[in-house]
Write a structure and sequence with these properties.
Strand content: over 45%
Radius of gyration: 10 Å
Shape: globular
Number of domains: 1
Number of strands: 5
CATH class: Mainly Beta
Length: 66
Amino acid sequence: MSHGQLLKSPADFENAIMFQIIVSITQDGEHMGSGQLIKQSQHCIHTVDAIYFKGVCEFKVCSMVH
């Protein structure tokens, strides 16, 4: 995964979870938060602090945790 890559598929989200990638989350162009993804469901993404809906938010790679 590269910086700025948009996460779209369930596999993209699984890779972000597995490799502890930090993701920026936006909705309608407004920054909603960023952080490490901890799990996904069919419609939602879970971070440590919040739950975001896949259908209304964009998820982009910020960086990887080492």
